[in-house]
Amino acid sequence: QVQLVESGGGLVQAGGSLRLSCAASGSIFSINAMAWYRQAPGKQRGLVASFTSSGTTNYADSVKGRFTISRDNAKNTVYLQMNSLKPEDTAVYYCSAWRRGGVTDWGQGTQVTVSS
Question: From the first residue on, what is the mean pLDDT of each consecutive set of 10 residues in the chain (116 residues)?
């Protein structure tokens, strides 16, 4: 079991920035990768960015060049720096940890709202 605690969501104007944080605890040794997902009203949850244990990052096309995922191993924390935010980025953002065996743990979600 991995527990994930998120912070950093809020309301921001278009063109602004937010930084989301996700601190992991529990069975940290079993984590292969961490990722951020988002779910807008009426839409399915989709992958935003991921960061594997080997250092590989991946981004959805819609956020590439604007969002950056990073990690601090000493703090067992992953971040999502979101710049040049657009109204279409409005969603609930979820942190996830991918563990061995294909198990995924989820944070509680944090609301990001971008006004036009």
Answer: 95 98 93 96 96 93 98 93 98 96 95 97
